[in-house]
Specification:
Elements: H1 3-22, H2 28-50, H3 58-65, H4 75-87, H5 105-122, H6 125-130, H7 132-149, H8 153-176, H9 181-199, E1 215-216, H10 220-225, H11 232-237, H12 246-253, H13 255-260, E2 265-266, H14 269-276
Parallel strand pairs: 1-2
């Protein structure tokens, strides 16, 4: 067992409860922001837990990660799709990589001028923050509806667990702590936006590169909020390593050099903002289909 990660579990859930308690003394804007940050931190925690931390029993890890503070995504669907993302040999391919933000030529041809402009905006940092949660929600809803309509028993079981869990989360937030529903909904959107900052340019297709995983260095705040998953090349090379060991592993693997020659190396999130606030990190149509 990893005592550091067990302490992290406690800290994240206490942070969420504390942010809910602050709602009674804060204006709705700061309150939604505080709850949103806690939700984003919980998303990072779920990612850590699905990779086998802190207990040797994945069942226990799953139970710790299960509460859907962000409402939208059943944890077991996220875990399944994320592990598929790690297993694919074709990172960034929109047909095989479950977390690719690229689109196929067929999809691109259907979008039309407005849809293509929206897709390009979505590939900027500002676009990812502003419309990213809505785009991801629509994509996820369509995929889940296809699975449920096909009679996928696993998907049905996931939702049968997820819906009462969402009800429990909302009961705690809205009834026990008195958070207005629209404040919590705003917080959920903010939380997803923050999570999408981390994943914004994690993967970029590059011809002949040793890695399609980027590296973004950050200060203590974002490193803790994202649990060092911004050191993404190191995480993909050693997904079993706990978050607090990733900086040392990145140095050991030479991840900076690997990413600089591949998907990209960024010295800070301020650098990401300067370079990609309104400039797409790449065209939405996958390079192999252009």
């Amino acid at each position: 067992m990893e005592w550091g990660n067990l302490a992290l579990v406690c800290a994240v859930y206490f942070a969420w409860l504390g942010s809910l308690a602050l709602n009674s003394v804060l204006h709705w804007g700061p309150s939604a922001a505080a709850i949103g940050i806690a939700i984003a931190w919980h998303g990072s925690l779920q990612h850590e837990l699905l990779h086998g931390h802190p207990f040797g029993s994945q069942t226990v890890n799953n139970l710790l990660a299960h509460p859907p503070l962000a409402i939208r995504l059943p944890f077991f669907v996220y875990r399944r799709d994320h592990l598929r993302h790690h297993d694919t040999q074709w990172l960034t391919d929109p047909e095989t990589d479950t977390e690719s933000f690229y689109v196929t030529a067929e999809t691109w041809s259907r979008l039309g001028p407005f849809g293509r402009a929206a897709a390009r905006f979505h590939h900027t940092l500002l676009g990812r923050v502003l419309i990213g949660p809505a785009v991801v929600f629509v994509r996820f809803a369509r995929a889940q509806l296809r699975e449920l309509r096909s009679g996928d028993a696993d998907a049905l079981r996931c939702w049968m667990c997820h819906i009462p869990s969402v009800a429990a989360v909302l009961f705690v937030a809205l009834q026990l702590f008195g958070v207005e529903w629209w404040v919590y909904a705003t917080a959920v959107y903010i939380g997803h936006s923050i999570m999408l900052v981390r994943s914004f340019l994690e993967h970029r297709w590059t011809e002949g590169a040793t890695t399609r995983c980027a590296m973004v260095h950050s200060g203590p705040f974002f490193s803790l909020l994202f649990l060092n998953n911004n050191l993404h090349d190191a995480h993909h090379m050693r997904p079993e390593v706990p978050w607090y060991r990733l900086p040392a592993v990145a140095a050991e693997l030479g991840s900076d050099d690997r990413s600089m020659a591949g998907a990209g190396l960024y010295r800070s999130y301020a650098s990401v903002l300067r370079r990609h606030a309104l400039t797409p990190f790449d065209e939405p149509l996958h390079p192999l289909e252009r």
